[in-house]
Automatic annotation (TrEMBL):
It comes from Streptomyces boluensis. TPR repeats lie at residues 661-694. InterPro entries: Apaf_helical (IPR042197), P-loop_NTPase (IPR027417), TPR-like_helical_dom_sf (IPR011990), TPR_rpt (IPR019734). This is Tetratricopeptide repeat protein. Residues 795-809, 817-832 have a biased composition (Basic and acidic residues). Pfam families: TPR_10, TPR_12. Keywords: TPR repeat. Residues 628-657, 795-832 are annotated as: Disordered.
Amino acid sequence: MDQVTERQLTAALTYAADRPAARLSLLDAVGSDADARAQQRVRAWVLGESGESGAAGEPAPVLAALLAEASLADPVLAENLSRWTTRTLTTGATTPDGGEASRNTFDATRVDGVVVQARNISGGLHLHPAAEAAEPVPRQIPAPPAHFTGRDHELAELERLARAPRQAPAVAVISGPAGVGKSALARGLLGKVADAFPDGLLHADLRGRSPEGPARPTEILAEFLRALGCRQVPYELRELAALWRTVTAEARIAVLLDDALSAAQARPLLPASPTALTLVTSRGRLTGLGLDGAAFRPLGVLDAAHSLELLSRRIGESRVHGEPEAARSVATACGGLPLAVCVAAAHMAARPRQPLAAMARALGENGQHTLDALRVEGESAVRTALDESYRLLPPALGRAYRLLSLAPVGVLDAPVAAAVCAVPPEAAERLLDDLAEVSLLDELGGTAHSGPVRYRFHDLVRAHARRLAGTEDPPEERDAAAARVLDHYLATATAAEQILTPSHRTLRRDYSGPVRQQPPFDDEQGAIQWLDTERGRLMAVLRFAAGSGADDAAWQLADAMWPLFLRLRPYELWLEAHEIGLAAARRTGDRAGERRMLTSGGTGLRNTGRYDEALRWFEEALRAAREDSAEAAGDSTGTAEDSTGTAGDAAARARHRRDEAQALHGLGQTSRLAGRLPEAERYFREALALRADIGYHRGVALSRLCLGDVALAAGQPEQAVGHLERAHGELLAEQDRYDAARALALLGRAYARTGRHAEADRQLLAALDEFTATGSVHWQAHVLEMLGEAAAERGDTERARARYEESRARYAPVSEPDTRRLEDRLRTLGNP
């Protein structure tokens, strides 16, 4: 490279803004040959140690010139510049002389960092630092109700608590019967004091009385951490809670925990910051949270005057003044419950010419006029108002009200409603909006991350709708509505699986009928985002399927969720899904499903360090595959039905042998991680031979990759190089970039062990680029650790420390054991 052009320098600087491998390579480029001041200036810019466009007040063009000069003297950086430049996309920008300027763009064609506009490095340089794309501050609290009254005293008390200086987090428990307005009070407060919590407002429905069962603290903590910017989170409650305390240690956030079942459910979700506020709503008193310093605010029913005021705000003062006695009767019949008043008011608002006396008579005939109604959590006081509101719904809207209550998910949106009601999504949107208009659904809003506008039933309203469905809809219609929801989630998850892990998409899918909706994504980013957003509802549907006897749907949904487990590593869900799926596949007698659940579930067990359990699952999978293969070959009596064929079929036997190889591969990987290297090598060689025999080329490459890893662990780097070079080429031929990057990383480590250090760094940096592009944080951390090991082995302590620090930072949110290991490595290096 005779000179560094604008295109090359722009590529390097822009790429470095987002790519750890590039930053490290640029640091390497100004190594021992550069003077100390140059090193300091470049290091400050690359590592972000200065907020200026240049480090220590230096103009950015000086830094650019230093980097350009270093690239001329360093062949590794020159090669990287050339490689990165080939990935440049032209954005249409122009140079000062009117020519076209190229800018490197990655990840949705976004330009971050510094952009250079210059003909070459000998001309004038103009660097324009671009603002970093910041994570949006979460604002998850649903809007407070438009009509809210009778709680001035409670609001004032809670506002004083929220704004008071303190040395410990503030916690308040708002308790009371269903429908009394606990959530409305909390939302109203947070609307007033949002300015005191600039770092975020978080909301979780703990589903204390939900038919789906209460939310698990691990589920909610993972959602909170992702909302605050943690891309990867651990799976165990202890590690999640520790990370939550760390992330919120100084955060000025408010958290609303709605409908808590118990103090034990809420406690792990309390943030650690003394500037944080947590509001917990519950039908129970949750006195156990007193140990956490909670203040308790029990909420009573509204008095008659405030009930009348709320009614007046909803239907208009003129109607109340026109029929004052009827209005008072309506307010009294609602038992002081805001929910009942709002439902009755929505009914009357929809009938502006109907006298209030008609509703008063209906409530008087059917309702209970005393607080005795609250003995069953307010249900009786609300039921009559709901009955009257339901009675006037158009038939199509009444049907939607009933059927939507049967959906096995707590949060509804247009795609789910379309599946439940068997209508197009546009019609489903109208149904949801109309039900919200008459206060039969609560609108939760929607965001760029959550997708369509979402809704939910108040649990008393849902119970009312379910009772109606049980009496007005025949069992076959109720079953069909639930089956359509299962179909929707199974089909959409399978579409994501097809995009993200096509080699895994081999087993059958059974649907109750045609699936008409198209998936809301068409690329990898959209698919993984949908899986991430929907993980809670996917698990709710999976549990419902198994509990309602839809066993085929249960194991098939667990299978379709594989890319979620592989890419995002929600281990608790991974293990639960496969335990449910395995039991379901065995109940239905599907041998292919059983084998898949055993190998995929065994992988989850292995990745969590539960090696003995993982070995048992893989051994069961191996035994089942061999039995089925023998039966298909006619070596034993009887027949065995497979998901895709019949016993004796040669294709079925090939599938069984492929599953046998997969089980052997899992046994090898588990043995490798458990440190049993001879057993691991034996299993991998058996798997490789089987895969070669049936022509499974990608599987052959994966087994070869693992043999290279075992050779590395056994201190045989030259042998490892042979395996890994071949595996890398084979995986590229199979267009498997992710696993090819794994082979490249291990190959770089093998090169370092044989003394080929420059080649080792090139391969490791290239692998790091790939893992950064695919979002695999764990492998990013692993490669950075390998780079640190290589630097330490050649005596470059400073570089080793920098890379271990980056590795530790990436491990921290995803793996506590790995984080501790990196901390040990850093202690071994000593102080700088």
